[in-house]
Amino acid sequence: MTKNPVPVVTVPRLLQMKRAGEKIVALTAYDAPTGRLLDAAGVHLILVGDSVANVKLGYPNTLPVTLEEMLHHTRAVRRGVERALLVADMPFLTYEFDPKVAVAHVGRLIKEGGATAVKVEGAGSILPSIRALVAANIPVMGHLGLTPQSVLRLGGYRRQGRDRAGAARILSDARRLQSAGVFALVLEAVPAALGKKVARALRIPVIGIGAGPATDGQILVVDDLLGLTPPPRPRFARAYAELGAESLRAVRAYAGDVAAGRFPGPRESAD
Predict the structure, then answer these.
(1) CA-to-CA distance for 186 and 167, rounded, in angstroms?
(2) How far is residue 162's CA from residue 147's CA, in Å, rounded to a whole number?
(3) Among 9, 40, 108, 135, which one has the highest count of C-beta atoms within 10 angstroms of its own C-beta?
(4) Taking Cα atoms as reference points, which of 143, 151, 167, 127 lies closest to residue 87?
(5) Are residue 120 and residue 251 in the same domain, yes or no?
(6) 251: how many CB neighbours lie within 10 A of its CB?
(7) Using one digit for the tens of pLDDT, what is the confidence trace for 200-240?
């Protein structure tokens, strides 16, 4: 695969893109081949999301994934990435309460996993942990709106910020995260008008997922983009290919050829 000539993406580069009005392209990855593919395609930011829990590991949501599992997948993606900014999700209950514990856990994703930055969900009680991480020179990305680690409290994957109070709370939390030192913010499943308002209010990049077109960039789960996610897919996702259906067709064709004795044929059996 031909290497992409785009320079290495850094935290300051993302801030420059925000100021210049350049859109940030972000996607998730969970293994080395996907990381290599996204890197070659010129994706600016690759997130090793805790979505690996339900997308790849068969869990019902993101809550069960462990730090060791996140380390495993972050190391794998790092082997395929040379230029994109690599961000790793902090798993549930590894950063929320004790800043010292948060720094120790994040340090493993940076030192052992090869991540350039980490992402955390929410605001409020996690602000001390964010400040401690920033003080330790670790780039931190925030995440507001629909925060999957809060799925039990939210009662499901529900759109956030739909009323005036909810929108005001998200905007206030976004400003608090910026003040705490996050370098960027993921804003998920909020009205497009709120996505635009938050992006305009902050100096840091706001990367949307189901937050409308006016944010500073967009992120999707790569399996949704490639058509590998079984329906129903998120309303805000767009499949640019249908690799799930094509893979099923290919495996069925192979199974049929094996059952009928057509595989291996003369070509595959040649010495």
Answers:
(1) 15
(2) 15
(3) 9
(4) 143
(5) no
(6) 10
(7) 999 999 999 999 999 999 999 999 999 999 888 888 999 99
Nearest CA-CA partner of 86 in 48, 55, 121, 112: 48
* Domain assignment present for 30: yes
Same domain, 182 and 210: yes
Locate 123 and state its tokens: 């605001």
Per-residue pLDDT reduced to its tens digit, 140-198? 999 999 999 998 888 888 899 999 999 999 999 999 999 999 999 999 999 999 999 99
Query: Are 39 and 115 found together in one domain?
Result: yes
Q: Is 188 a catalytic residue?
A: yes
| Helix, strand, coil percentages, rounded to 5, for the chain | 45, 15, 40
Its domain, for residue 198, covers 11-240
Beta bridge partners of 188: 145, 209
| Domain co-membership, 262 together with 174 | no
Q: Which of 68, 188, 242, 246 is catalytic?
A: 188
pTM above 0.90, yes or no: yes
